[in-house]
């Protein structure tokens, strides 16, 4: 049960995230220092900061996740493959890729599937999280996106970029979990800013949390005896 998580256990769910377009090298360094201190699972950064993040995290168990096709997912499939390759060359250990939302909604399922397979192949056994942007999808779209993600060989479905009209919801996390089954990864991201919301997402079925508020989340239950 999530209510029995220690701060360290809760931290292990968190991808400590900084994806703002004006993020500076100094801010990335601070992000990595915070991730080291709190032992978050990873930092999640834009491609241009992957190499710096790996340097800042040298000797640490904290992973570096890179976003691909971010935040719209609407570029050429070849560009996504190249971006994946470049991120891995710079040291990325996980890939968070935005699927092509318009092609999914248009019914071009073969295109979406092929694009995801290509990214998974280029990731070369590194975990791939597929960002669905649930706020733009119908329930049927979400179910289909989950099915395509599982079939592609990726390891996670992910709710949101945090840059669209809405973020993660409990209902969406439950739907994703029900669709992908009990063992597949589900990442909730977008709008997770406090301990109660983080725990609710975990209770709903999330196995990873994307958030820029990781420090507030793990420190948000002072006086509870060390567990949440």
User: What's the N-to-C terminus distance?
Assistant: 10 Å
CATH topology descriptor: TIM Barrel
The assigned structural class equals alpha/beta
Quick one: CATH class? Alpha Beta
Quaternary structure type:
single chain
N to C succession of SSEs: HEHEHEHEHHEHEHEHEH
CATH architecture: Alpha-Beta Barrel
Question: Helix and strand layout, with pairings?
Answer:
Layout: H1 7-11, E1 14-18, H2 25-38, E2 42-45, H3 50-56, E3 63-68, H4 77-89, E4 94-98, H5 101-105, H6 109-123, E5 128-131, H7 139-152, E6 156-158, H8 170-180, E7 185-189, H9 195-204, E8 208-211, H10 214-218
Q: Care to give the gist of this entry?
A:
This protein has 228 residues and is an alpha/beta fold. The chain contains ten helices and eight strands.
Description of the structure:
46% of the residues are buried. Helix 6 packs across helix 7 and helix 7 (139-152) crosses helix 8. The longest helix has 15 residues, at 109-123. With 228 residues, the protein is of the alpha/beta class. The chain has ten helices and eight strands.
Please tag this protein with its features:
single chain; 228 residues; TIM Barrel; 8-stranded parallel barrel
């Amino acid at each position: 049960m999530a209510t029995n998580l220690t701060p360290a256990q809760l931290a292990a769910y968190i991808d400590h995230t900084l994806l703002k377009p004006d993020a500076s090298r100094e801010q990335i360094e601070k992000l990595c220092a915070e991730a080291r201190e709190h032992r978050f699972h990873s930092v999640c950064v834009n491609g241009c900061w992957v190499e710096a993040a790996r340097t800042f995290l040298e000797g640490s168990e904290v992973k570096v996740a890179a976003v691909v096709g971010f935040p719209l997912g609407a570029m050429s499939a070849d560009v996504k493959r190249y971006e994946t390759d470049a991120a891995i060359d710079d040291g990325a250990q996980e890939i968070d890729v935005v699927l092509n939302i318009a092609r999914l909604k248009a019914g071009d399922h073969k295109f979406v599937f092929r694009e995801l397979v290509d990214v998974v192949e280029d990731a070369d056994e590194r975990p791939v999280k597929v960002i669905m942007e649930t706020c733009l999808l119908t329930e049927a779209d979400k179910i289909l996106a989950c099915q395509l993600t599982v079939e592609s060989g990726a390891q996670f479905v992910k709710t949101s970029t945090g840059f669209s009209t809405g973020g993660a919801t409990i209902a969406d996390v439950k739907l994703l979990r029900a669709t992908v089954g009990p063992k597949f990864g589900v990442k909730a991201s977008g709008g997770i800013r406090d301990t109660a919301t983080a725990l609710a997402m975990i209770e709903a079925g999330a196995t990873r949390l994307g958030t820029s508020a990781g420090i507030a989340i793990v420190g948000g239950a002072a006086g509870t005896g060390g567990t949440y």
